[in-house]
Amino acid sequence: MDEESEPQYQELISNELLSEVIAHGDMSNDPETQASLRRGLVVASDAYVTAALERATQRSEKEDNAALDRVTEAAQRLYDALLHLQDYPGLEARVEKAVRRNPHLHEVRNGVTLGDMMGTRRNIFANYREVLVDLQICVEDAINRKPKPVLLEPDMEGEAPLRLDSEDELKAETQRWRAQSKVRKFPKDHALLQFLVTFQPTWSALSGHPFTEGMYYPETGRTLSRLVDALETVFRRLDPAVTRSAIVNGLRKVRADDTNR
Questions:
Q1: How confident is the model at residue 7 (pLDDT cuts 50, 70, 90)?
Q2: Rounded to 5 degrees, what are φ and ψ at 124?
Q3: pTM above the 0.70 mark?
């Protein structure tokens, strides 16, 4: 979370709002619970705002693919450039020396640095190149291109290209592409779902009431759920456009996803 934005959420989550949520959830009204609940609501609110911006600024699939293509192309150029260093005697050794004497190398998990990944002399970047290959493969796999017939260009001029795939295979690939295109689009309730998923651990830790939408009662025309009551209270401040029915539907989706995992 952006440190500059956190005070805004702290102001949004007032003591009065905390008291209402605590009452709905039958939570302990002690300082530790209040602090945990406030933190959970702040983080969930930030997730909501971030997700709303994601949906509002999502690019087209064509633009997404172009951005991923640039990554694979840059990875290939860097792979080639690192390999090309072997054609310059003594150059890899100079780079290795510079790396070894740099005291400010970034540390990744378990304290591994750039120097720890270097290989043997005259091939010090072998590990990096393999990582770049992995990156290319994974990024290429993330690209969702519209499938086309697979053609083998002829050796002789004037000959027709040889079709390598069948119409059934192309149809199946097209269906997969369409499904992926649909999945990549953020749904209308993307922000709400992100709030719910983020807030779930906090509610489960502090309240004895289940994280569910509750049961629908036709005579009242609404569901009976302490969680929904609490969330309705929160969204009256966070985003009044979020209705009780939207909260109920969002909770159903979150629970369905949990069940399918």
A1: low
A2: -70, -20
A3: yes
